[in-house]
Design goal:
Layout (H helix, E strand, L loop, with lengths): L1 H15 L21 E2 L7 E2 L6 E6 H7 L4 H5 L5 E4 L8 E4 L11 E5 L2 E2 L5 E2 L2 E2 L10 E8 L3 H4 L6 E7 L7 E9 L4 E12 L3 E12 L10 E14 L2 E14 L5 E6 L2 E4 L17 E5 L5 E5 L4 E17 L2 E21 L4 E2 H7 L7 E5 L5 E2 L3 E27 L2 E26 L7 E5 L16 E27 L4 E24 L23 E27 L4 E12 L3 H9 L10 E13 L3 E17 L11 E18 L4 E10 L2 E2 L19 E10 L4 E10 L2 E2 L7 E2 L2 E12 L2 E8 L7 E3 L11 E7 L4 E9 L1
Parallel strand pairs: 6-11
Antiparallel strand pairs: 1-2, 3-10, 4-5, 6-7, 8-9, 10-11, 12-13, 12-46, 13-14, 14-15, 15-16, 16-21, 17-18, 17-45, 19-20, 21-22, 22-26, 23-26, 24-25, 24-28, 26-27, 27-29, 29-30, 30-31, 31-32, 32-33, 33-34, 34-35, 35-36, 35-37, 36-38, 38-39, 39-42, 40-41, 42-43, 43-46, 44-45
Length: 809
C-alpha cells in the first residue's frame, strides 16, 4: 500500500507542476460561482446566497462529484464550523457544530432530505442520522447551515441544518452512470436518470447505487454491501405543483471502534501486533456469536451484518398559489426503519495474559489460554476483552410541515405548523468475548489449572465468551411534536433587510423501560461442551433476564425559539450581516433512560438551552469568494450520557461557552489555471458557569479542536485535465472533560486527477496518502483515561485509492 501511495503522490506532483496553462473555464472546474446561487435552507423562500443573513455553505452535484467523498461525513468536513469525526467508516460518524459537545452522532443539527428530517431525532442511541442516508448521484446539491435560523425551521437543531436536495426531472432527458473500484475491493455502480413524461407538465427522476467492498480496514469479510434507490414524480400546473417520492435503503456497513495505540505525548505509534492504519478488532475469526439464554433458547448474531438499516420512505409535496400574493406549501413524509446493529466495542485496553487472569480470580501462574478454533494451548503476550454489542431498533416517523406564505412589496411573511410523530423501540443483548490483542484476533478460552475440569469456576469463558448476555435492555421512546413557527423578511431599503423568526414548541415525549434481573445456567440442564455443566464456568454467572416490571415515563417541552438578523448588501458582490438566535435541544434518549430509571436523580432533567451571536462578511464574484463569520455561543444544561463498556452510563451536566470564527473561501486564478478552496474554524470552547469548585471550570470542551481546516488547490492542466491535492488539519483535543487524555493534532493529505473525454469522465482519488495515524476520538466507553502509554483510540483510515468512470448522457 505504501508503494501505491508513493506512486499516487509522484503522479499528482507531476501533474501539479505541469506548465500547460488553460485558456478557458475547464469542464471539470471544481466550484460553481456563488454570486448567483440561490439557497432555500433556513429561509422562508428561495433567496440569493449573498442576501441571506445566514452562515450557509453550498455544494452542487458537480462539486460533490469532484470531491468524491467516501461518506456523507467526509463531505461535511468541507463545511466550516462542523468538526467531523470520520473514523467510524461509511456510517456511524459524529458531527459537532460550533464547539457544542455531545456523546456523538448529530445531536445538535438536523439532517434533512428536501427540507424534512431523515429521522426526527438524529442522535438516538446507535441510530446516527447518517445511518439512514447515503450520498449518491441522485443528490442535486447540499446546503449546510450553521446556527442562525436552524432552530426556527427544525427541531433540536440549534447547531444547524444539513439539507440534501434531490434531483428532479426536466424537459430534457438526461442522466449519469458511474462505475467505481478501489484498492480495497470496491465495486460500486451509481445511476441516475430524469426527464419528462409529458413536456412542461409531468417529470420523473430515478437514481441510486449498489456497492460492495472489503473495507479499508481488513475485516476478512465484506465490510460494506448494499444500496439505495430513490425516485420522484412531479406534476406542474398553472398555480403550483404536486410531487410524490419514494426511497429504499438496504445497506450493511461495518462500524469501526477504538484499537490499541502507544502514545508518548504527541507521538503516536502502533501497538505491537496491531496495524494502526488497516487493523481492526472487527474481524471474521470472532464474527459469530451463538449463546444460550437464561430464559431459554439461543441468541445468535453475525458481525458481518454490521450496521444494517432497512429504510422505506414515502413522501409528498404540494404547492399552490392561492392568489392575492398568498401561497401554501405542504410537505409530508412517512419513514419506517428496521435496523440490526452489531459491533465490536473494546472493554478497556489490552492486558497482559497474567494480569487478566489475576483480575478474573486466578492466582499465580495457574492459568492457561487456548484457541477456541483448535483447542491449541497458547501463551499470548496481551489479551483483549471485547464487547459484542447487538442492538435491534424499530423506528418510524410521520411528519407534516404546512406553510402559508404572503408576499408584499417589501418582503414576505411565512407562518407554519409542524407536526411530527415518531417512535423508536430498541432491544439490546450485549456479551463480552476474549481475544488476542491483535488486528486479526483469535477467540480465547481461559481456565484455572489449579482446579479440575469438573470444578466449579474452572473456566472463565464459554467458547471465548467471558460474560454471556450480561446486559439486556428493552426500551421505547416516542415523540409527539406540535410546533408553530413564523418568519418575517422585510426590506427596509433595496440593500438593507431584516429577518425575524420564532418557533413555539409544545412537544410531548413518553416511553418505557423494562427492568432486568440476573440469572445463570447452572440448573438449566445445559452443558458447556456436552460433558460439563455450567457450574464449571463463570461466563454465565451474571446473565441478564428481562422481567415484567415496566417503568413508564413522560416529559413535556414548552419552549420558544427565536432569532433576529439584519443583512446589508454593500454592493452586488459584498454584504455583511448580524444575527442573534436562541434555541434548545430536548434531552436525548439516554438522558431519559438514566433519569427515569434512577431512584433519586441528583439533578433535574432539562432541555439544553443555546444562545448564539454571529456576524458575517461575504464577498462573492465570478473568480473569488470569501466568507468570514465570527460567532459566540453559550449552552446551559448540557448532559453527558456516554454508555460505558459495563453497561452503565455517566449522567453529568455542564455549561459551555465558545467564541470563534469560521472562514470559507474560493479562488480561480491565473486565467483559470489554478483553483483554491479553503474552509477553516478557529474557536475556544470551554466549560463555564459551573458550581464553585467544579473540576471542569475553564477546561476545554472534550473532543473539540480549537483549530481545524481544509485547503484544496487544483490545477487545470488543460480544459479537460485536472488534478488536485487536499490537506486536512485537525487540531489537538482532549478525550475527556478533565483534559487528562490528549488527542494529538494530525494532518491528512489526499490527491487525485480527472480527465474529461467528451461526456466520459475518468478519475483517480486517493485518501490519507501518507498513511497518517490520526485519532479522532479515544475510548469514551472506558471511563476515566490515564494519559500516555497504551491507549484505546479510533484512528482515521489508512491510505486508499479509488478509480471511477462516469458517463453523462
Amino acid at each position: 500500500m505504501k508503494k501505491r501511495s508513493i506512486f499516487l503522490m509522484a503522479a499528482t506532483a507531476t501533474l501539479y507542476f505541469n506548465n500547460a496553462y488553460a485558456q478557458e473555464t475547464p469542464q471539470d472546474s471544481v466550484k460553481t460561482s456563488s454570486i448567483d446561487q440561490i439557497v432555500i435552507t433556513g429561509n422562508s423562500g428561495p433567496k440569493k446566497k449573498i442576501e441571506s443573513s445566514t452562515a450557509i455553505s453550498t455544494f452542487t452535484a458537480k462539486e460533490i462529484q469532484k470531491q468524491n467523498p467516501i461518506s456523507a461525513a467526509a463531505l461535511l468536513q468541507r463545511v466550516p464550523g462542523f468538526a467531523v469525526e470520520t473514523s467510524g467508516g461509511e456510517v456511524g460518524n459524529n458531527l459537532f457544530a460550533r464547539g457544542i459537545p455531545s456523546a456523538g452522532a448529530y445531536e445538535f443539527v438536523q439532517v434533512q432530505e428536501d427540507g424534512l428530517p431523515v429521522f426526527e431525532d438524529g442522535a438516538l442511541q446507535f441510530a446516527n442520522a447518517d445511518n439512514f442516508f447515503r450520498v449518491d448521484n441522485s443528490v442535486s446539491r447540499l446546503e449546510a447551515l450553521r446556527g442562525g435560523s436552524g432552530s426556527i425551521y427544525a427541531t433540536n437543531s440549534p447547531g444547524g441544518l444539513i439539507n440534501f436536495i434531490t434531483k428532479e426531472g426536466s424537459n430534457d432527458f438526461k442522466g449519469t452512470a458511474k462505475l467505481e473500484t478501489s484498492t480495497y475491493g470496491l465495486m460500486r455502480t451509481d445511476v441516475n436518470v430524469g426527464g419528462a413524461l409529458v413536456q412542461d407538465k409531468l417529470f420523473f427522476n430515478v437514481g441510486g447505487f449498489y456497492r460492495t467492498d472489503n473495507g479499508i480496514r481488513k475485516t476478512g469479510f465484506r465490510a460494506n454491501n448494499g444500496g439505495q434507490i430513490r425516485m420522484n414524480l412531479k406534476y406542474v400546473f398553472d398555480k403550483g405543483y404536486a410531487k410524490v417520492y419514494y426511497k429504499k435503503l438496504d445497506d450493511r456497513n461495518t462500524f469501526f471502534l477504538p484499537i490499541p495505540l502507544t502514545q508518548n505525548g504527541n507521538d503516536l505509534k502502533e501497538f505491537p501486533g496491531f496495524d494502526a492504519n488497516y487493523g481492526t478488532y472487527s474481524y471474521r475469526t470472532i464474527s459469530q456469536l451463538n449463546i444460550p439464554q437464561a430464559g431459554g433458547g439461543f441468541f445468535s448474531r453475525n458481525l458481518e451484518d454490521g450496521i444494517h438499516p432497512k429504510v422505506d420512505v414515502l413522501g409528498a409535496e404540494f404547492k399552490y398559489d392561492l392568489g392575492n400574493n398568498f401561497s401554501v406549501l405542504n410537505k409530508t413524509r412517512y419513514t419506517n426503519i428496521n435496523m440490526n446493529y452489531t459491533g465490536i466495542f473494546p472493554a478497556g485496553g489490552p492486558a497482559t495474559a497474567g494480569q487478566f487472569a489475576k483480575d478474573n480470580g486466578i492466582t499465580g501462574n495457574n492459568y492457561q489460554y487456548s484457541l477456541v478454533s483448535s483447542g491449541a494451548i497458547v501463551n499470548p503476550a496481551f489479551v483483549q476483552e471485547l464487547g459484542f454489542w447487538a442492538i435491534d431498533k424499530q423506528m418510524n416517523n410521520f411528519v407534516n410541515d404546512l406553510q402559508l406564505n404572503y408576499k408584499f412589496d417589501k418582503g414576505n411573511v411565512t407562518a407554519g405548523f409542524y407536526k411530527s410523530n415518531w417512535k423508536s423501540h430498541q432491544n439490546w443483548n450485549w456479551s463480552n468475548i476474549l481475544a488476542t490483542a491483535s488486528d486479526k484476533p483469535e477467540l480465547l478460552n481461559l481456565v484455572d489449572t489449579s482446579l479440575t475440569p469438573n470444578s466449579t469456576g474452572y473456566s472463565k469463558t464459554y467458547n471465548g465468551v467471558t460474560d454471556m448476555s450480561f446486559l439486556l435492555r428493552d426500551s421505547q421512546v416516542q415523540g409527539s411534536l406540535n410546533d408553530l413557527y413564523a418568519n418575517l423578511d422585510y426590506n427596509i431599503t433595496d440593500n438593507l433587510s431584516i429577518n425575524a423568526g420564532l418557533r413555539y414548541s409544545r412537544d410531548f415525549y413518553k416511553g418505557y423501560s423494562v427492568n432486568t434481573t440476573t440469572a445463570n445456567l447452572n440448573n438449566s440442564g445445559l452443558t458447556t461442551d456436552g460433558m460439563h455443566s455450567f457450574n464449571t464456568t463463570t461466563a454465565d454467572d451474571n446473565m441478564s433476564v428481562l422481567g415484567n416490571k415496566y417503568n413508564y415515563w413522560s416529559y413535556d417541552i414548552d419552549k420558544l425559539s427565536y432569532t433576529l438578523a439584519t443583512n446589508y448588501k454593500i454592493n452586488k458582490e459584498n454584504a455583511v450581516y448580524a444575527r442573534f438566535s436562541h434555541g434548545f435541544r430536548s434531552p436525548n434518549e439516554e438522558a431519559y433512560y438514566n433519569y427515569f430509571t434512577t431512584p433519586n436523580p441528583d439533578q433535574p432533567l432539562k432541555p439544553v438551552l443555546t444562545n448564539q451571536v454571529e456576524l458575517g462578511y461575504k464577498y462573492y464574484s465570478r473568480t473569488f469568494d470569501i466568507a468570514v463569520i465570527p460567532f459566540y455561543s453559550t449552552l446551559k444544561n448540557l448532559s453527558f450520557t456516554d454508555v460505558f463498556s459495563n453497561g452503565t452510563s455517566e449522567n453529568t451536566f455542564a455549561n459551555t461557552k465558545n467564541y470563534g470564527v469560521e472562514l470559507e473561501g474560493y479562488a480561480r486564478l491565473f486565467n483559470n489555471m489554478l483553483e483554491l478552496t479553503f474552509n477553516g474554524t478557529i474557536q475556544n470552547p470551554k466549560y463555564s458557569g459551573l458550581e464553585e469548585g467544579s473540576l471542569l471550570e475553564g477546561n476545554v470542551v472534550r473532543r473539540m479542536p480549537k483549530v481545524y481546516f481544509n485547503i484544496s488547490p487544483a490545477v487545470n492542466i488543460t480544459k479537460q485535465w485536472r488534478t488536485y491535492v487536499s490537506y486536512n488539519y485537525y487540531g489537538k483535543r482532549f478525550q475527556d472533560q478533565l483534559n487528562v487524555q490528549t488527542l494529538p493534532s494530525f494532518s491528512e493529505f489526499g490527491a487525485g486527477t480527472s480527465y474529461q473525454l467528451g461526456k466520459i469522465r475518468f478519475a483517480v482519488d486517493g485518501t490519507n496518502i501518507f498513511n497518517t495515524i490520526g485519532i479522532t476520538e479515544g475510548d469514551p466507553r472506558a471511563g476515566s483515561p490515564t494519559g500516555d502509554g497504551t491507549i484505546m483510540a479510533r484512528p482515521i483510515m489508512g491510505a486508499a485509492v479509488r478509480a471511477s468512470i462516469t458517463l453523462d448522457f
